[in-house]
Design a protein that fits this description.
Protein name: CUB and zona pellucida-like domain-containing protein 1
Organism: Pavo cristatus (Indian peafowl)
Distance between the termini: 145 Å
Pfam families: CUB (PF00431), Zona_pellucida (PF00100), ZP-N (PF23344)
Structural class: mainly beta
Keywords: Disulfide bond, Glycoprotein, Membrane, Repeat, Signal, Transmembrane, Transmembrane helix
Shape: elongated
InterPro entries: CUB_dom, Sperma_CUB_dom_sf, ZP-C, ZP-C_dom, ZP-N, ZP_dom
């Protein structure tokens, strides 16, 4: 096909041709009038699109300049260099001025990971295309336009910082304007990544997205980190590897459509859950892929503990296993394990060694999640604080082998009751200490309370506490009732949990005064509640009250039945007598007197 002199076409003629897709390639070809590929030119049009085809050993310069005091935006929306070329031997260099001696704005080459956009500081701009000696058909598509920054209306783009959000192209759902250039910077919480989806998407369709396009970058700049480019009518999806993403919309001067409606959400690439006995670490496969790793490259402190892999990679293990370390800190216990991402079996590597440090901090009635990631000694935090699982029950004897399951628990006055607080944890090196136990006639422990134990000291003469035994705190006391005839008694205990390896912990000090207690440390504190307790005589009294009532109810029911039966019998006798009387009086035929 003979190249047409595209540089001689005016913008209206070019726009008219854009209506017929078959002639686009002809009008966009950057050729001389004789059909020989043109190497360089001086351009003064307010806007122009160029399709440049070059071979080896090219050194071509294009100058763009107008007399108006405006700025130039130059966009290389498609470029194809020799695949084996380096940036030193084959590139496009862009200069901020009328010649190649002007300041260098930047360059485009085979390794460019972006859709390059350059903006001049004045009304002139120059770009130089250089190719090496290898025979190969290079293709470039570039368009530029002049504009006035001081009069341009910024009706699109901006910064989005929420955990999720939406944004649309200008005028959506009406057609977007020509020469639109919008940049959205999205930033979510640290250690998250961003998922971008489109509810509607309609840009000008082109195989290489040269005319109108959307470009998405993994980061806050548009110079590198291109995730992808989109156009046409498909609904693309994009995902970042970090908590920052940049979205660019660029359009030329013809064939505008309705644009797009987009929604982004923040996604945690890793999560940590801590329970009373397990630690669970979940990693996103996409996050691992972004780091150049997969599940085979992961290991905990104990390499024999392996993850379960589905659509995610999951480590779940007891707190006291898989090489987990424990540290007793002031009023908390911290369990720590490390997921290391590294290549094995290789002599060298060019990948970052990543460590995901997972911490479960058992604190006072609080829940916080943190995991932090280290990349070549650069630390990013992500931790988790959880709660121990504690329960309290009554037992039928001091062997504490058979818990009392009935509720309410009916007892005799002054009966010895056995109570046990149990810690449900896989960590064997923990102690349970009963700091304070209070009784109340109300389940919400209102104004009326009675101390059985306070600050580890027995306050009731019948209370006997047993020595701490691993995960159990035990004591006994004699049953009582409150003087105001309250039918129930509830029991609540403040429970302290300590590291058994810490000989100076609060759990080892027993009964202390309030002054000493304020300076004593403990690891974790919670409350355990059990009840109600009721006296057996209350149940017997209720039974005695109920029996006469039932007897009276039965007597009244029987009397009523007898009365109804007698009424029925009387009615039956009366009816029978009445029928017999009627049968004695028959009808006689009157004799005729004639």
């Amino acid at each position: 096909m003979l190249c047409l002199p595209a540089l001689q076409w005016t913008v209206p003629e070019f726009a008219q041709c854009r209506i017929r897709p078959c002639c686009k390639a002809e009008l966009l070809s950057c050729c001389s009038p004789t059909g020989v590929p043109q190497c360089g030119a001086s351009l003064s049009d307010p806007n122009k699109a160029l399709k440049i085809d070059l071979n080896s050993n090219a050194n071509c310069v294009w100058h763009i300049q107008r007399s108006e005091n405006q700025t130039i935006r130059l966009i290389f929306s498609y470029f194809k260099f020799n695949p084996s070329s380096s940036c030193e031997t084959e590139n496009i260099k862009v200069y901020d001025g009328p010649s190649s001696n002007s300041p260098l704005l930047g360059q485009v080459c085979n390794n460019t990971d972006a859709v390059p956009v350059f903006q001049s500081s004045s009304n002139s701009l120059t770009f130089l295309v250089t190719t090496n000696s290898v025979a190969f058909a290079r293709n470039f598509f570039v368009f530029y336009y002049f504009f006035s920054p001081e009069t341009a209306i910024d009706n699109c783009g901006g910064s989005l910082t929420g955990p999720d959000g939406t944004f649309t192209s200008p005028n959506y759902p009406a057609a977007y304007p020509e020469f639109t250039y919008c940049v959205w910077h999205i930033q979510t919480a640290k250690n998250s990544k961003i998922s971008l989806e489109f509810q509607d998407f309609f840009l000008e369709l082109d195989q290489n997205c040269q005319f109108d396009f959307l470009a998405v970058y993994d980061g806050l700049t548009t110079n590198t980190g291109l995730i992808g480019k989109a156009c046409g009518v498909s609904r693309p999806t994009f995902e970042s590897s970090s908590n920052v993403m940049t979205v660019v919309l660029s359009t030329d001067y013809a064939n505008s459509y309705r644009g797009f409606s987009a929604q982004y959400t923040s996604v945690l690439p890793t999560s940590l859950t801590c329970s009373s006995d397990t630690m669970t670490i979940v990693l996103s496969k996409a996050y691992l892929d972004s780091l150049g790793y997969n599940e085979t490259h992961l290991q905990l402190n104990d390499p024999s503990c392996r993850p379960v892999t589905t659509d995610q990679v999951i480590f779940s293990f007891p707190l006291s296993s898989c090489g987990t370390t424990k540290k007793d800190e002031d009023q908390s216990i911290t369990y720590t394990n490390i997921v290391t991402l590294s290549e094995s079996g290789n002599i060298i590597t060019r990948k970052k060694i990543v460590q995901i440090i997972a911490k479960c901090i058992m604190e006072n009635n609080s829940t916080l999640e943190v995991i932090y990631v280290t990349e070549n000694n650069v630390i990013q935090n992500t931790t988790s604080v959880g709660r121990y699982n504690v329960s309290m029950s009554f037992y039928d004897s001091d062997s504490f082998s058979s818990p009392v399951l009935e509720s309410p628990y009916y007892v005799d006055l002054n009966q010895t009751l056995f109570a046990q607080v149990s810690l449900h944890s896989t960590d064997p090196n923990l102690l349970v200490f009963l700091d304070t136990c209070t009784a109340s006639p109300q389940s919400e422990f209102g104004s009326i309370t009675y101390d059985l134990i306070r600050s580890g000291c027995n306050k009731d003469d019948t209370v006997v506490t047993y020595p701490p035994l691993e995960h159990y705190g035990r004591f006994r006391f004699n049953a009582f009732r409150f003087l105001r005839r309250a039918p129930s008694v509830y029991l609540q205990c403040d429970v302290l949990i300590c590291d058994s390896n810490n000989v100076n912990s609060r759990c080892t000090k027993g009964c202390v005064s309030r002054q000493k207690r304020e300076t004593s440390s403990y690891t974790w504190k919670t409350k355990a509640v059990v009840g109600p307790i009721r006296l057996k005589r209350d149940r017997r009294a209720a039974d005695h009250l109920e029996a006469p009532y039932l007897q009276r109810y039965s007597f009244y029911t029987l009397s009523f039945v007898v009365l109804i039966s007698n009424v029925i019998i009387v009615v039956a006798v009366v009816l029978k007598y009445h029928i017999r009387c009627l049968s004695r009086y028959g009808y006689q035929k009157i004799q005729s007197s004639y």
